[in-house]
Design brief:
By secondary structure, this protein is an alpha+beta fold. It has two helices and three strands. A three-stranded antiparallel β-sheet has the order 2-1-3, with no helix packed on it. The N and C termini lie close together (9 Å).
C-alpha cells in the first residue's frame, strides 16, 4: 500500500476544534511540518476534514 506525505501549510488559528484535533492525530503541530502516513480510509477521513490546511503527495 502506498504512503502519503502530508505537509501542514496553514495555521490552525481560527479553525474549529475538530480540525485542530485531526491535525494532532495526524502528528502535525507546526506550519511546514511533514509526516508520512499510510494511505488508508482513516487517514483519508482525517485529511478530508483539514484539506484546506495541508498538502498531500504520494510517496512510492
Amino acid at each position: 500500500m502506498a504512503d502519503l506525505l502530508i505537509t501542514q501549510v496553514r495555521s490552525t488559528i481560527g479553525s474549529r476544534w475538530k480540525q485542530r484535533e485531526s491535525l494532532k492525530t495526524l502528528g502535525l503541530r507546526k506550519i511546514r511540518q511533514s509526516v508520512v502516513r499510510e494511505d488508508n480510509a482513516q487517514t483519508r477521513g482525517l485529511l478530508q476534514v483539514v484539506r484546506h490546511l495541508v498538502t498531500v503527495e504520494d510517496v512510492k
